[in-house]
Amino acid sequence: MGGQALEDDAVNISWQRGVFDAHCHPTDTMTSIDDLPGMKAKVLTIMATRREDQTLVDQVAARFPLSDTDEYKRSASKFVVPAFGWHPWFSYQMFDDRSTYEIPDAMTHYKTVLTPKVEDVAFLKTLPEPLSLAQFLTDTEARLRKHPFALMGEVGLDKSFRLPKEWLPDETQSRDPSLTPGSREGRRLSPYRVQLAHQKVILEAQLRLAGKLGRPASIHSVQAHGAVHEVLQSLWAGHEKISSRQKKRRSSAAGAHAADDEEKINQGPSSPLPFPPRICMHSYSGPADFLREFLNHKVPIDVYFSFSDVINFSGPSSEKVIDVVKAIPDSKILIESDLHRAGAEMDGRLGSVFQRVCDIKKWSYERGAEILGRNWRCFVFGS
Ligand SMILES: [Zn+2]
After folding, report:
1. Of the candidates 8, 90, 160, 340, which lies 20 to 30 Å from 223 by C-alpha distance?
2. Cα(25) to centroid of ligand 1, in Å?
3. Which CATH number does the domain housing residue 298 bear?
4. pLDDT tens per residue across span 48-59
């Protein structure tokens, strides 16, 4: 048997052990869902992003349900773990009515949340009727409760995104009807962005809900790692972890009983916390230096970093990502396809990022499958 055959064999064994997609969007191409049972990946973690895909993710999860946290180990079937959330690209479509019953006029709302200020009335008229954040949170809470392993996602912040322009007649005609509507597809971009302050409001509200239900969150961040950290930090303020040395110092000063109480406050979330217990920075594009902010021992959230072939290992940033992958602790790394259709291409993308990460980390493929499988499990289920 030649070297290549041996390598292929090792990769095949890894697939059998289990490869997990920590972040993907197959509901963007619903016709591809029929290919899911024939895939090599064991479990897909499927994100919802906008008004058009929340119920689709709900339906697909109901079709491939995980009945307990070990079922995927016992069964050769393929499974879906759903995630429900509102992506920052669509954050402008929501108004914050959590402390008011007033429904803003659509034009006024869009003029407030978009930047630069929109004077182009024709463009404003093409935007959809804005939605109530309060209602979305109620609906999302119901969906999360319906799916006991569901995550919050995809949520986040994006400083570079611009709204697409309205559809042109010839674009509408040539559009692929198998794609779930609502995304950019091939449209040209407008000059308008969503104000970061508004994105933060939508993100923070969703992270609080994740905290209330004790669910992990999958986070999108483009040129906004500092801002994401700021939002999380404002939520975890007062809940920072204390080191064992600090604990000892406090217990000798105040007596063991008081120290026990301290530990409960810091670690025992018998009452819900205002932030998710675990997050995944999906297709992480930040610098290695920034990892420290999230991996600091005081941070009361378990932070994972996920990588995709599509975003991280194609294009100019693929050199930089090698240092980032090396710097991440073995137990905090995940892989994902971030792809918009299920099937062979998704397996191919996952296989490719799997091999890249194993090579950078100098793991054998078998060991890589074991580590990455365990990490996915810890991120999604908590243990
Ligand atoms: Zn995504």
Report:
1. 340
2. 7
3. 3.20.20.140
4. 999 999 999 999
